[in-house]
Design goal:
The complex is a heterotrimer, with two copies of chain A (208 residues) and one copy of chain B (269 residues). Chain A has 208 residues and is of the alpha+beta class. Helices cover 42% and strands 13% of the residues of chain A. In chain A, strand 1 and strand 2 form a beta hairpin. In chain A, helix 1 packs across helix 3. With 269 residues, chain B is mostly helical. Chain B has eleven helices and four strands; from the N terminus they run H-H-H-H-H-H-H-H-E-H-H-E-H-E-E. Chain B has a three-stranded antiparallel sheet, with helices on one face. In chain B, helix 1 crosses helix 6 and helix 6 runs antiparallel to helix 7. Chain B starts with a helix and ends with a strand. Classes of the chains: A alpha+beta (208), B mainly alpha (269). Chains in contact: A-B, A-C, B-C. Strand 1 of chain B pairs parallel with strand 3 of chain C.
Chain lengths: 208, 269, 208
């Protein structure tokens, strides 16, 4: 088997993650670009850690998301970088975000269960949009009359929000407290007033 | 329900009716909404729980204290406003109205001694409100975390032009090789069984024989060229010979209709 | 006008070139991400030169192409990176497998001899593919008219099938057992049905 120097290995892994079409997992790297180079997983992990350090002060960061490693622009640069595109980023309706949050925090969950919590029906359109974006999928059926679909979030969802796992979702504690039945009343709750200011702008795509 | 009837009765022409509705609004300063924004606001509620939460927070109540009488009244005011501007009022809002009315009536009943906190008719609604509040907050949190397209952008790095996709060669299992060999050997055996020894039937020879047999001025039936005693091999040789002759434009084939008998004659000229 | 530190400017320009949909020209950068930041073209050029230096020892490089700046992988890494886009070649045809097995079991063998057994011609394509894969080679010529090539399998072939020699090929009795239909159910011979359901290949011609 061919040998590769640490320097070459770092360059190769770096370039591979940059040019890959999707986040690159350790397996993917070992099976493709590093195939036949007798690089151990441990050595690969070391290289990845080094690269993460290298890029810490840069405009682009090496991050680990659910489906693997990828480079992405620093969060703080977002507002500036967004100027490069005429079109604004899609915005999501509250109905969609609430449905998505429930699926994320309470998965696997049925549509009926989502409706019970939200107090309103969930439109098929929302479920369809979330499925089409690849954020949710049916993972099974609940063994109750009607065998309703059980929904869960996907890796694509986590990748989109730059999360490596569900545990990284914010305010998961609130859900845990809720399950235990002792949520504190002084938890900061946003008032709806802010919501009302969000009038859709003409050039925005509002996704319901 | 009498309350609601009153509101409808005193309703004035749109849109002023919503703003100067002193008769229905206890705290007009809190409920003042610019008329053009009213519809947007009412549509912004994600359902009855959302509306109730809004009312509770607006009055700075604690959910646990849930002043049912007050909240119910305000809730009904909003529901009526929604009806007035002909918002498509979902059944969920009316269902909640019924729930509130029921709680209210139960609260009016004298408390029995042995009743504990869990028998509070508000308990279930309080539980749902708190649960919904958590979901609502989670949705806002989710919306605020950095995400692709809006806050995070992915680099697009080119590979140099000489970098061509690598073609992966198909895997072959030893078993596949063994079975392929077996298949080849079986075919040899099958061939040997039907072997006609020695190879006397040559296509060229048969071509000459057929040319002798056919006539230029009348058709001969296709079947006339085949003889049973030559077996399959004979049929094949004859067939090939005829095809060869047709290809060389020495024979003409005629078939009146599909599947009918084929007739053969010597080609003209 | 807002001011931006040299460090921030470098990060922003770097991230912008990385995430841009096409090579980013100086004008493009000044008019989009740097808009309102009072960055002179001279200062931008300095930053670009610094970035080019930064990336010199890395797996990707900042290069200036006709329409602007872009990052691309280091030339020398091309052959390795190519492995990331592996195309799965279609499975071998029955004709190919039979030809290979005949060469393996009956070597050295001529193309004509293979054709005699198979009853169909062996396309040049098959011989070429097997040779390119390094599994067969010409080991001599048969002393008959036309002096046809004699084919044999290679060491690469043995390595692929983890055989130390041809003697380790499954014995011919295995075939006879199969012929007689005595194959027991627990014999580990299983093949995707598709292999044998295959329609005659375009590269096979019947011999008359």
């Amino acid at each position: 088997m061919a040998k590769i120097s640490d320097e070459q290995l770092k360059q190769l892994v770096e370039a591979a993650i940059f040019v890959a079409d999707k986040p690159a997992s350790e397996e993917f790297l070992l099976e493709t670009v590093l195939e036949g180079l007798s690089v151990s997983r441990k050595r690969l992990k070391e290289v990845l850690a080094l690269l993460q350090l290298d890029y810490q002060p840069r405009g682009i960061q090496l991050v680990k998301v659910a489906s693997g490693y990828r480079f992405q622009s620093q969060d703080s640069l977002g507002p500036w970088l967004a100027k490069m595109w005429q079109e604004q980023a899609p915005r999501y309706s509250r109905a969609m975000l609430e449905t998505l949050s429930l699926i994320a925090y309470r998965q696997p969950i049925t549509r009926g269960e989502i409706e019970d919590v939200r107090g309103v029906s969930v439109s098929s359109h929302i479920i369809k949009s979330l499925s089409e974006r690849g954020w949710i999928k049916v993972v099974g059926h609940k063994e109750v009359p009607g065998r309703p679909s059980l929904y869960a979030t996907t890796k694509t969802f986590l990748d989109y929000f730059s999360l490596s796992g569900l545990a990284e979702l914010p305010s998961i504690e609130a859900f845990e407290k809720l399950d235990e039945g002792h949520i504190s009343d002084n938890d900061s709750i946003e008032l709806p007033q802010t919501e009302f200011d969000m009038q859709p702008q003409a050039d925005e795509k509002q996704i319901h | 329900m009498a309350e609601r009837a009153d509101i409808i009765a005193i309703q004035q022409p749109l849109p002023l009716a919503f703003i100067n509705g002193e008769a229905v609004m206890e705290k007009p300063e809190d409920l003042y909404i610019p008329p053009e924004a009213l519809e947007v606001i009412l549509e912004a509620f994600e359902g009855p729980l959302d509306l109730l939460l809004y009312l509770i927070r607006k009055q700075k109540f604690e959910i646990v204290d849930l002043p049912v009488a007050q909240i119910t009244r305000q809730y009904m005011e909003y529901v009526d406003l929604m009806k007035d501007i002909k918002l498509e009022l979902a059944g969920e809002y009316l269902l909640m109205a019924a729930i509130l009315a029921e709680i209210k009536s139960r609260m009016l009943l004298p408390k029995r001694e042995e009743e504990n906190e869990e028998d509070d008719p508000r308990a279930e609604l309080i539980r749902r409100l708190r649960e919904y509040e958590v979901v609502k907050a989670a949705a806002l949190d989710l919306d605020s975390i950095p995400r692709e397209e809006r806050d995070i952008f992915l680099p697009k790095v080119q590979v140099t032009e000489d970098c061509q996709p690598q073609r992966m060669l198909p895997p072959v299992a030893m078993q596949e090789l063994v079975l392929a060999m077996q298949a080849a050997m079986q075919r040899v055996k099958a061939f040997e069984h039907h072997h006609i020894t020695p190879e006397t039937l040559s296509t060229r020879e048969r071509m000459s024989a057929i040319l002798d047999q056919v006539k230029a001025d009348e058709f001969t039936s296709f079947s006339a060229f085949f003889t049973a005693d030559e077996g399959k091999a004979g049929v094949v040789v004859t067939f090939l010979a005829i095809l060869e002759l047709v290809k060389e434009s020495l024979l003409e084939l005629v078939q009146a209709e599909p599947f009918s008998d084929i007739h053969i004659k010597l080609a003209d000229g």
